[in-house]
Write a structure and sequence with these properties.
This protein is of the alpha+beta class and about 170 residues long. It is built from 7 helices and 7 strands, in the order ααααβαβαββββαβ. Helix 1 packs across helix 2.
Length: about 170
């Protein structure tokens, strides 16, 4: 009984440490355990987005790098855009639509004109067939031109022609 109580106490200490610490070890353990890394909800989302922009920068590349470095791909069901952003920030994982929604919210909060686009994604194999039948990413207005912003697949500020050469397709 004492050993079980010690293990339970150790687990409680570990979980409380994981919620308050953001070192790479604690983040890795919390992700593996499926624990939320933040406690963001619809009431605190705007403040958290602003905090992210203040800490990481408001430039396109800053936002792109934040999303790429802080979210891990995991196939998860779609929800509302706001719910997907909250999930991605709390759990640091999500599917293409989570990446696109988080990028969209951060870009918009930073003052950029942005759209989310749905199409077929990157052709990694080079066989002319997109690897995903359904893929989401963003378009951001830069100097009067819409450029593609896909934080999941690593495509940063590419024009339509460049994206089509990579195997992306979408309806205009």
């Amino acid at each position: 009984m004492k050993a079980t109580a010690k293990r339970l106490f150790s687990a409680v200490i570990l979980i409380s440490m994981l919620f308050s610490c953001s070192c790479s070890f604690c983040v890795k353990v919390a992700k593996r355990l499926g624990l939320p890394l933040d406690n963001i909800n619809e009431n605190s989302l705007d403040a958290r987005l602003e905090d992210i922009l203040n800490k990481n920068g408001r430039d396109l590349e800053d936002i792109y790098n934040f999303v790429r470095q802080n979210i891990t791909y995991k196939r998860i069901e779609k929800a509302s855009d706001e719910e997907m952003v909250i999930y991605a920030l709390n759990y640091r994982r999500g599917a293409c639509y989570h990446y696109a929604a988080l990028s969209h919210f951060l870009l918009k909060a930073a003052g950029y004109e942005v759209q989310t686009i749905k199409g077929a994604g990157l052709d990694v194999n080079g066989d002319g067939i997109p690897d995903a039948d359904e893929h989401y990413w963003n378009l951001v207005m830069v100097d009067g031109k819409w450029l593609h912003f896909d934080a999941l697949q690593g495509q940063f500020l590419k024009n339509d022609e460049e994206m089509k050469k990579l195997g992306y397709n979408w309806e205009d």
